[in-house]
Design a protein that fits this description.
This protein is α+β, with helices and mostly antiparallel strands and 538 residues long. It folds into 3 domains: 5-59 and 365-527, Up-down Bundle (Multidrug efflux transporter AcrB transmembrane fold), CATH 1.20.1640; 70-150, 2-Layer Sandwich (Gyrase A, domain 2), CATH 3.30.1360; 154-362, Gyrase A, domain 2, CATH 3.30.1360.200. It has helices at residues 5-23, 30-34, 55-58, 69-90, 116-123, 147-172, 197-205, 221-227, 288-299, 337-349, 366-419, 426-455, 460-492, 495-527, and strands spanning 52-53, 60-67, 95-101, 105-110, 129-131, 140-145, 178-182, 186-192, 210-214, 233-241, 248-256, 261-262, 266-273, 280-286, 306-310, 313-316, 328-331, 356-364, 423-424. The strands form 6 sheets. The chain has a 4-stranded antiparallel beta sheet with strand order 7-8-2-18. Strands 3-4-6-5 form a 4-stranded antiparallel beta sheet. A hairpin with a 3-residue loop joins strand 7 (178-182) and strand 8. Helix 4 crosses helix 6 (147-172).
Length: 538
């Protein structure tokens, strides 16, 4: 009687029970297994409800976004110019102008060339810039961003864009999205199961640059519209839609260019309901530092109007009635509940560091995904039946054992995909089909070794022991080779290729367990137990 037979049987039963729980969790267990954030189980369909299906299997949208990294670079240089001006003025150095020149240059015009040495001392503390074309006699300092620093800032814009989009999508509630960089300035976004593509695109593509600026009450609005705003001001517009007629009109504002607070000063944003009008609005709360700034400028500007601006559009321009020490503000604009929710999401997730535009868009309907599942599973079932019949006819009872092991292999594979929250794609189904062939090939290798041992005249027990022992090294070599190939595909492949690699790798590991551990267990029970079969059917 083989040693530890009871323990080995217990391990197999535990694996089977665990797999079934991951695939078909009983009521109340799903939240403990997957966590509350994983979302409800998918109902119906040909696959277990706990499997996450990719874009090609359940429909959704595929987007390739182009990130305007040059714009991000320009924005950063403009901020640096403003910081340099503030630093110089703090040291008592008069400045006529500090502005961006081109994409990566900054021109600083001193009020007096006599402050040249002091100005350079202050500016030398600014890392990442070097002098190019300065004129001491004219008090003109020209700085240029170093090439290495420019590359770093462009890369940072992409990485910040990835993180911001990922945060927005997570709050939007999409299960298992694909968000990754493509090339130098592109981002791939795949959102399976999305039913409202337009809303999703608006949520992802919104820059969401929130700014708080003061209105210029002294400026003449009509003149600003005709001839342009005065120096230090800008002309912005508010879009107003009549709720009854749905007609749109635009209202102009003359706003001071200086930004008092931005979305970076927000701690949180949430949707609230106005009790008097029952309309939704977005309530924002500033950070501690932002709250102090907000309290200070509201105290000094009582009676004046504050413009709340998102992506260059005025959403509201309320009058400051009193000092606001709470660090809270409201953004109104006749929102629908969905619009208010999406605005709160993008404000919580943060602004994109640079504008993005949709370069490629594909929408996959759920019916096409259902057809893909049906055809893919049909191919798997057809190949599995062919393999099952071959093993039964050629290896008889041993072939039946291999068939049972193959069923267990597929059960473990699907349970692992569900347990790791992996996304099953159409190439992933192809990986499952390939796993069937690899798993059967492993059993064939072991069975042929056992046949060879039987031909030499060994007993059934000796032939089984020798067959498994001699085939083990070859089995390990072949499985490791496939695992290395899967790792390479996963590392360098994109979404669909990665889906194939994941399915194949998990299937190979499951095959190793079923072929070496489970199949050997069945042989030990049948041919080496107290009621062992006297002849080996192989």
């Amino acid at each position: 009687m083989p040693k530890r037979l009871g323990l080995r049987i217990g391990i197999v039963l535990a694996v089977i029970a665990g797999s079934l729980i991951y695939l078909y969790p009983p009521p109340g267990i799903r939240e403990r297994v997957y966590g509350p954030a994983h979302g409800p189980a998918r109902q119906g369909g040909l696959l277990p409800p706990t499997l996450n299906l990719g874009l090609d299997l359940q429909g959704g949208i595929h987007l390739v976004l182009g990130v305007d990294v040059d714009k991000a670079l320009e924005n950063q240089v403009e901020r640096n110019a403003a910081d340099m001006k503030a630093a110089l003025e703090k040291k008592g150095i008069g400045i006529k102008e500090a502005a961006r020149q081109g994409a990566t240059g900054i021109v600083i015009q001193l009020a007096s060339s006599q402050m040249w040495t002091d100005a350079l001392t202050v500016l030398n503390e600014s890392q990442g810039y070097e002098q190019k074309g300065s004129d001491q006699a004219a008090g003109r300092i020209v700085l240029a961003l170093k090439a290495r620093e420019a590359v770093t800032l462009r890369d940072l814009a992409i990485r910040q864009g990835l993180e911001t989009i990922r945060n927005r999508v997570d709050q939007f509630g999409v299960a298992e999205p694909t968000i990754q960089q493509q090339g130098e300035n592109r981002i791939l976004v795949q959102l399976p199961g999305i039913q409202d593509p337009e809303r999703a695109k608006g949520l992802i593509g919104k820059t969401a640059l929130l700014e708080f600026k003061m209105l210029d009450d002294q400026a003449e609005l009509d003149k600003a519209v005709r001839e342009g705003p005065p120096a230090g001001d800008e002309l912005l517009w508010q879009r107003i839609v009549d709720k009854q007629t749905r007609q749109e009109r635009r209202l102009a504002y003359v706003v001071k260019k200086r930004t008092l607070l931005t979305g970076a000063d927000l701690a949180t944003a949430k949707v609230s309901i106005d009790q008097s009008t029952s309309e939704p609005y977005v309530s924002v709360t500033f950070t501690d530092a932002g709250s102090r700034v907000f309290a200070e400028f509201t105290e000094h500007n009582v009676g004046k109007r504050l413009a709340i601006i998102l992506d260059g559009n005025v959403y509201s321009a309320p009058v400051i009635r009193e000092r606001i020490p709470s660090g809270q503000a409201q953004i109104t604009g006749g929102f629908t509940p969905e619009e208010a929710t999406d605005l709160a999401i993008v404000l919580r997730a943060g602004a994109l560091p640079a504008p993005v535009r949709i370069l490629e868009e594909r929408t996959v309907g759920p019916s096409l995904g259902a057809d893909s599942i049906r055809q893919g599973l049909g191919a798997i079932v057809a190949s599995a039946l062919a393999v099952f019949l071959f093993m039964l006819v050629y290896y008889r009872l041993s072939g039946l054992i291999a068939d049972v092991a193959l069923v267990l292999n597929l059960l473990i594979l699907l349970a692992a995909l569900a347990g790791f929250h992996a996304t099953l794609t159409l190439p992933g189904i192809a990986g499952i089909a390939l796993t069937i062939g690899v798993a059967v090939d492993t059993n064939i290798l072991i069975f042929e070794r056992i046949r060879e041992e039987l031909r030499t005249g060994k007993t059934i027990r000796a032939a089984i022991d020798a067959g498994f022992a001699r085939a083990f090294r070859t089995v390990i070599d072949t499985h490791v080779t496939v695992l290395v190939s899967s790792a390479i595909l996963y590392q360098f492949g994109t979404g669909p290729v990665r889906g194939f690699a994941v399915s194949l790798a998990i299937g190979i590991l499951a095959s190793l367990f079923t072929a070496v551990f489970f199949t050997r267990l069945i042989f030990d029970v049948l041919y080496m137990g107290p009621r062992r079969v006297q002849s080996l059917s192989i």
